[in-house]
Amino acid sequence: MKLTSEVLKIDPNLTENRVTNFIRNYIVGANVSGIVIGISGGIDSATCAATCAKAIGGAGVLGLNMPEAETRDEADIKDAQLLAEMFGIRLETIDISPIVKAVLEKISLFDSKDRLANGNVKARVRMIVLYYYANRTRRLVVSSSDKSETMLGYFTKWGDYCADISPLADLYKSQVRQLALHLGLPTRLVQKPPTPGLWPGQTAEAELGLSYDQLDLILYGLEHFMKAEEIARELGLSAAVVKQVEGRWLGSEHKRRQPLCVKLGYRSVGHDFRLPYQI
Q1: Overall number of domains in the chain
Q2: Is 92 exposed, middle or buried (0-12, 13-18, 19+ CB in 10 A)?
Q3: Angle at CA of residue 256, ends 211 and 148, nearest 5°
Q4: Can you give the residue range of the structural domain that contains 15?
């Protein structure tokens, strides 16, 4: 298989139709009042919010922008507001700094130098807020995680990946960019360096060590059962780099699964007790 950008090209009209139909059918079947989604001002949340608005109308989508003191970026807030105006989405901005501070102050092991643990608290606080709004307004929470970050486990467990549905989770980052441009999102927003926004200066590509253009092709190859050495030859990379990506993918599987249990009964919940699911 030739690993070029061509393999990641999507049919934008077909993709939009399939994603919006998925969202619309799920929301109608669940008999809820609409959707609540975190809108950070980044490409994934903007694209996901736009498809939600296309699916059920902007009036049915409640967007929450949740900045906090350490990583607050006025440009991101303005981009979230612009996106909401473009698609008729109601947007609320909630500064979660006091909530994060209150949580961390009550933890006896708190260490201000542990960026990862403290950053994950921010992601989980955002999910608490989203689900509170969902409970109060009879909405479903929608995740904006893409396939690249989902495969790499590049998300906070029980944080930004926690949701009722995840419409973009089978689109690589480069494919989300294609869909975003098709939906009419500003080029500046589409080209903005992705960041989870957990600590100052954090960018996804710097943390992952490769550009998304490279990562997506590596992940595409792995998805299609190509060997690390074959992928490396195709992309002109060292096998060690590809194996590192593969290791991150395999090593993060626990983040994509429900908690395991000891099999003691006849049918264990989740594994061999998977019931037909219909809404």
Answers
A1: 1
A2: middle
A3: 15
A4: 5-206
Q: CB count, 10 Å around CB of 138?
A: 12
Q: Which residue do the tokens 């919010």 mark?
A: 49
pTM recorded for the entire structure: 0.93
* Distance (Å, whole) CA 214 – CA 87: 32
Structure tokens that stand for 75 in this block: 């440009």
Confidence category of residue 206, pLDDT binned at 50, 70, 90? confident
In a domain, 274, yes or no: no
Q: Which of 131, 126, 175, 130 is nearest to 150 (CA)?
A: 175
CATH code for position 116:
3.40.50.620
82: left (phi over 0), alpha (psi -120 to 50) or beta: alpha
71: Cβ contacts below 8 Å, ≥ 6 apart: 122, 197, 198, 199, 200, 202
Write out pLDDT tens, residues 102-126. Answer: 999 999 999 999 999 999 999 999 9
State how far Cα 267 lies from the chain centre. Answer: 32
140 in Cβ contact with 48 (< 8 Å): no
Does residue 202 lie in a domain region? Answer: yes
